Each structure stands twice: as C-alpha cells, then as structure tokens.
Amino acid sequence: MQGSDGMQLGLPRPGKPVIGLMLALAAIWLMFAVGLNWGGASSSVFLLLTGDTRAIIHGEVWRLFTAPLLHAPDSIGHLLTAIIGLYFLGTSLEEAWGGARFLRGVALASIGSYLLQMLAELVLPGSVSARLVGQYWFGLLPAMDAIAIAWALTFRKQVIRLFML
To answer: Which residues are 2's β-sheet partners?
Structure first.
C-alpha cells in the first residue's frame, strides 16, 4: 500500500542474515528454556557459555563469543526485545550495508561492548563494579544499542512516523 507522499507502507522484509540471526537466537533460547525449566538440565552448561570477566581473563575466551547469543531462559521478554530490535532496525541496516557488513557490525558491537564492560569492571573499585556488573552477563541487548545508533546515523535524514503521524 502506498501512502499519499509516495512512501511504501508495510512491514519490512528481512534478508537471510537477519532471519538467520533471529532464528539462531530463538533456537538457542528455546533449547535452554526447555532444558533448564522442564528438562531437568543443570544450569552449569548455560553458565559455562555466559560472560564472566574472571573466567575470560583466565583463558575462557569463548565466553565473549557465546554470551551475546544467550538470553534469559526463564523470560521470553529478554529474547523478544532483541528479535524485535533486529527485525525493525536490523532489516534496514542489512539492506543499506549488505548482509556481510551487517553481521560483522553485530559481531563487533557484541564483542566490543562486552570487552568495554570487562575493562570497566577491572578498573573501577570493587564496590562500584559489583553494583554495575553481575558475575554472569549475556544477551544481544548491548549490541542492540549499537545497532540503534548505527541505524540513526545511517538514516539520519529519514522521516520517522509513529502511529502514522
């Protein structure tokens, strides 16, 4: 449907990279949600993949790469926030940047945000860092902030209509 100003109205159509990332996040969340909540699985596997500054410093570097893919298995809201953000912001960025650049940007934002968090935890006094950073951290939400900023910078002259206004 086309609006009076020539704008196309409708939901965005994500490309394969965005769809793949959304499906991967949902599949990983579902696996842990079912396994931990109803399957009797131990939470130690989930915690082994989450971010943990001390563990990463002692060589468990994989945690930087797996932590962004995990979402709270006892809450679907954590996952839905990431998927909705990817759908509405990521689709436009993927179209403008291309799939490979978009995925590199998400990976860089994910790992970079957690590296900055680790650095802050290490340089701040223990009493401050204990309040700011938990022992375990995970999720794509820090990268979603970077995606929102990248979207705003990429489409800075675009008119945004909320509720058709």
So the answer is: 8
